[in-house]
Recover the amino acids of this structure.
């Protein structure tokens, strides 16, 4: 039954970390537009920051991120200099003589652990010079355990980091070799132990399924080993094989990739195994310990979704720094140029390096709220959401009828204007969200599998 549903609904769909999604961004939103948006932000509302570090020492062949490989620190040093310039210039566009606060900071990549300790300190000092970081702010960083030095972790403590996200993916040696990401469990265990000894208690880990040579049995062992590390949160992603976009993925042995049936079985095994270990399922692909703030946010209906996935961050404005970083402001989305050299030239010339974006209409905001409710809570009360926008839910009669067709498969229930997914429908949530996506039929990009 599950396999039949997978084949029926496993369309090429967006991950809905935003709405409208990135393929619909356009050059009409440029640096000048973005600067105007920044100048209109409300200082009473806290900000969220994302900083992209586009370098790694070694390429993981499954990677879909915007990153470059280097073992020479010179280009990284040049990048840090440009990033500091961008921080100063971008934050300088906020309303003058106003004090803005920060509730969330996230360093992603690439591999932020490629940074030298003194450069991490310099970046955080530049932020603190312009903004007031709230006492309860979450300051998080993505870490490659292979490049996480003691000096770097000590700098994390000095800078106030309280959460780290560790890339595990899989502990099976054959799988690791096939994707060029070889790291032992002992190495990961040691890094997590050091973080905790420094008082950094929030630990996320990333796992993947759908990788070459993975089996249900090998994934079960990886999950059990991961649970031994006592993470607070887990992100579990299906490998997106997009060699037409990421040429290095051509190095993945395609014949060793799991087929549709095997991929589904792997997903189910991870879900069931983590549930057995007491983790709460969060939306599509996250899990959290019952005592973690993300599990509480789910229970309280306060869970949110942004470009980093599921989050407890409720800031209305997220400002992105670095090539390809996306800012999400009340007025719309704006994405930095993904080409490192062009981004760096623009920043060094004193410009906002925005390549494209999209201004949000009232209709976009309405549909974004609906999709966010579905993605986070697996349910949405259209009457309630529409009332908050001052309109009637009757306008969504066509979408309701489209979704009602899914009730026959047991993946969703519809009662009036209330939609709720079943556990069977959890992995197909993107197919339900797509019913509300008015841009989807006009997409020019290719998306990954829905499961």
């Amino acid at each position: 039954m599950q396999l039949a549903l997978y084949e029926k609904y496993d369309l090429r769909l967006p991950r809905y970390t935003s709405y409208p999604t990135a393929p619909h961004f356009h050059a009409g939103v440029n640096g000048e537009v973005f600067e105007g948006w920044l100048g209109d932000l409300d200082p009473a509302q806290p900000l969220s920051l994302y900083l992209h570090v586009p370098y790694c020492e070694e390429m993981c062949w499954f990677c879909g991120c915007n990153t470059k490989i280097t073992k020479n620190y010179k280009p990284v040093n040049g990048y840090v200099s440009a990033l500091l310039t961008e921080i100063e210039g971008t934050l300088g566009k906020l309303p003058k003589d106003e004090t803005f606060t920060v509730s969330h900071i996230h360093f992603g990549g690439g591999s932020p652990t490629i940074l030298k300790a003194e450069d991490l300190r310099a970046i955080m000092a530049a932020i603190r010079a312009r903004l007031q970081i709230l006492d309860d702010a979450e300051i998080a960083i993505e870490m490659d355990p292979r490049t996480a030095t003691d000096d770097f972790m000590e700098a994390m403590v000095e800078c106030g980091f309280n959460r780290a996200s560790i890339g595990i993916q899989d502990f099976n040696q054959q799988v690791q070799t096939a994707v060029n990401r070889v790291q032992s469990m002992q190495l990961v265990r040691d890094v997590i132990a050091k973080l905790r000894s420094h008082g950094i208690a929030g630990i996320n880990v990333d796992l993947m399924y759908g990788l070459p040579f993975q089996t249900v049995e090998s994934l079960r062992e990886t999950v059990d080993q991961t649970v031994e590390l006592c993470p607070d949160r887990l992100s579990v992603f299906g490998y997106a094989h997009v060699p037409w976009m990421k040429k290095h993925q051509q190095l993945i042995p395609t014949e060793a990739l799991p087929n549709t049936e095997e991929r589904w079985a792997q997903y189910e095994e991870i879900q069931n195994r983590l549930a057995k270990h007491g983790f709460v399922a969060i939306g599509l692909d996250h899990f959290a310990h019952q005592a973690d703030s993300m599990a509480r946010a789910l229970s309280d209906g306060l869970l949110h979704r942004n470009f980093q996935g599921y989050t407890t961050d409720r800031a209305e404005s997220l400002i992105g720094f670095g090539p390809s970083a996306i800012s999400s402001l009340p007025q719309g989305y704006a994405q930095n140029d993904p080409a490192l050299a062009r981004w760096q030239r623009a920043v060094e010339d004193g410009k906002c390096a925005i390549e494209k974006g999209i201004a949000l209409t009232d209709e976009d905001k309405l549909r974004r709220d609906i999709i966010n409710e579905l993605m986070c809570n697996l349910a949405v009360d259209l009457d309630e959401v529409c009332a908050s926008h001052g309109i009637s839910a009757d306008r969504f009669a066509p979408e309701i009828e489209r979704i009602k067709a899914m009730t026959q498969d047991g993946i969703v229930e519809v009662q009036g204007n209330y939609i709720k997914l079943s556990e069977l429908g959890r992995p197909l949530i993107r197919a339900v969200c797509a019913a509300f996506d008015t841009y989807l039929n006009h997409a020019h990009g290719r998306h990954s599998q829905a499961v």
The first helix runs from residue 2 to 9. Residues 316 and 330 are 6 Å apart (CA to CA).
